[in-house]
Design goal:
Helix content of chain B: 55-70%
Helix content of chain A: 55-70%
Low-confidence stretches of chain B: none
Structural class of chain B: mainly alpha
CATH class of chain B: Mainly Alpha
Number of domains of chain B: 1
Strand order of the largest sheet of chain A: 1-2
Order of helices and strands of chain B: HHH
Largest interface: A-B, 88 and 69 residues
Number of strands of chain A: 4
Largest sheet of chain A: 2 strands, antiparallel
Shape of chain B: flat
Mean pLDDT of chain A: 83
Oligomer: heterodimer
Mean pLDDT of chain B: 82
Structural class of chain A: mainly alpha
Number of strands of chain B: 0
Largest sheet of chain B: none
Low-confidence stretches of chain A: none
Strand content of chain A: under 5%
Shape of chain A: globular
Chain lengths: 344, 118
């Protein structure tokens, strides 16, 4: 066996494999939830044939996609065309690597030392999330450009402009939380939110940073290209936006990346503002159930928003990002800084 | 210290491998009946007359430039935010000045119409 394959590396690989499965399964669940909630909002039944209440529908869809013909347009840049979905998916999955989703488990004393429920804990976790989610824009831009189709190019351009515009407010909202926590490690940020005010209200940063949470989540929705900010794939204008020319599994990978991104944004928002795995009633090692509930609530909010709010116009989107969200984020940051210094 | 980053690196590799394996599996089992017309770029059934990579609005460049400026400033704020309680009042005033300069630039960009889209 080569020297670099140590037990630690194997343990990490197992954990990575588990987390990746979790991400893919939760996006499958999210697809089902989206269709089901949408159906109920529109007074329909939604998928209900494959599996219990249609729960296996996403898997049926994946098999269908696997068997579909894959077209690479003859005018496309072949290499970049193939590379784009791979970049998208890898960036989406990797962003989750520093998100802790529970304290630690021993599996009833089997594991020693106990396994911490996260892939890794780096002291600049928030920056890592910020950096890797930004990589996702490359997948979309390359897909738009390499397809050599007008709809794809427009979708890719719009998407990149939108993502970079909202990333600034996203970063500024993050900085305000960092200030309160005094750390860039997501685990420490969560730990700093333990305890209660007056034995009743949990010490979540949501209550200290209500505006910051709104900015973060709005920017997060725009970053993941979801309604009401779903311009890259505004189907009435751009057919399917940057993935117009994609078919079969390479389309499936873009689809997966979008849902994984949503899961990541919700998970990061849970860690930063909603106290992560902290919650009452459950013992410490079951904290991940709280994490799951909070993340699901945010994901449900995503779906609810999509089927309630109409899409903005593109100029409104850019105006909102640059002229409203950004100044509010700057003011939020300054006020937070002043309060942190003033109140200690 | 750097050892904590190895899992991230592994994760990137596993993520890329996952995508490639999925594509290969699909390539092995899917149908292939491509023809000339299918391989045209999609343009709602009309034959494309020109290459898609045409000129596009200059505003996208403006947004990109503004992004570079503001995002670098944002990243600059992270280290300051981490140690804010130790820098105390001095750090606060320093950052106020920094943000003030940023806001002047922002106001200039706004005044010049760089933030207008329509």
């Amino acid at each position: 066996m080569p020297a670099f394959i140590t037990p630690t590396v194997i343990a990490h690989l197992v954990l990575i494999f588990a987390v990746m499965n979790m991400l893919v399964l939760s996006s499958a669940f999210m697809v089902w939830m989206e269709r089901k909630v949408c159906a109920y909002i529109q007074d329909r039944l939604g998928p209900n044939r494959v599996g219990f209440e249609g729960l296996l529908q996403p898997f049926a869809d994946v098999f269908k996609l696997l068997l579909k013909e894959e077209l690479v347009p003859k005018a496309a840049d072949k290499l970049l065309f193939l590379l784009a979905p791979i970049i998208s998916v890898a960036a989406a999955l990797t962003a989750f690597s520093v998100v802790p989703f529970g304290t630690q488990i021993t599996l009833f004393g089997l594991l020693d030392p106990p396994l911490r429920l996260e892939v890794t804990d780096v002291n600049v976790g928030i920056l890592v999330v910020f950096a890797i989610t930004s990589m996702g824009v490359y997948g979309i831009v390359l897909a738009g450009w390499s397809s050599n189709s007008k709809y794809s190019l427009l979708g890719g351009l719009r998407s990149s402009a939108q993502m970079i515009s909202y990333e600034i407010s996203y970063g500024l909202a993050l900085a305000a939380v960092v200030m309160l926590a005094g750390s860039l490690s997501l685990r420490e940020v969560v730990m700093n939110q333990s305890g209660y005010w007056w034995h009743l209200i949990p010490r979540w940063y949501l209550f200290l940073q209500p505006l910051g949470f709104l900015i973060f989540f709005t920017a997060g929705v725009a970053e993941t290209n979801r309604a009401p900010f779903d311009f890259p794939e505004a189907e009435q204008e751009l057919v399917a936006g940057y993935h117009t020319e994609y078919s079969s599994m390479s389309f499936g990978l873009f689809f997966l990346a979008e849902y994984v991104n949503m899961v990541t944004v919700s998970a990061v928002a849970t860690s930063l503002y909603l106290g992560g795995w902290l919650g009452p009633f459950l013992p410490d090692w079951l904290g991940w159930i709280w994490f799951l509930i909070k993340t699901l609530a945010l994901l449900f909010f995503y779906v609810w928003m999509r089927w309630t709010l109409p899409r903005y116009r593109y100029d409104q989107l850019m105006e909102f990002g640059w002229k409203y969200l950004l100044p509010v984020a700057i003011v939020n940051l300054i006020v937070t800084a002043a309060l942190v210094i003033w109140l200690g | 210290m750097l050892r904590a980053y190895i899992p991230i690196f592994l994760f990137i590799l596993v993520g890329i491998a996952f995508a490639i394996v999925t594509l290969i599996v699909s390539r092995l089992v899917h149908a292939e009946k491509a023809n000339e017309v299918k391989l045209e770029p999609y343009e709602c059934g009309i034959e494309p007359q020109t290459d898609a990579r045409d000129r596009y609005s200059v505003r996208y460049y403006l947004v990109a430039m503004l992004f570079v400026i503001f995002d670098v400033e944002t990243v600059f704020m992270f280290p300051w935010a981490v140690v804010l309680d130790r820098l105390a009042l001095f750090g606060l005033i320093e950052m106020f000045l920094f943000v003030l300069i940023l806001v002047v630039g922002y106001a200039y960009a706004w005044k010049k119409g760089a933030l207008e889209w329509a």
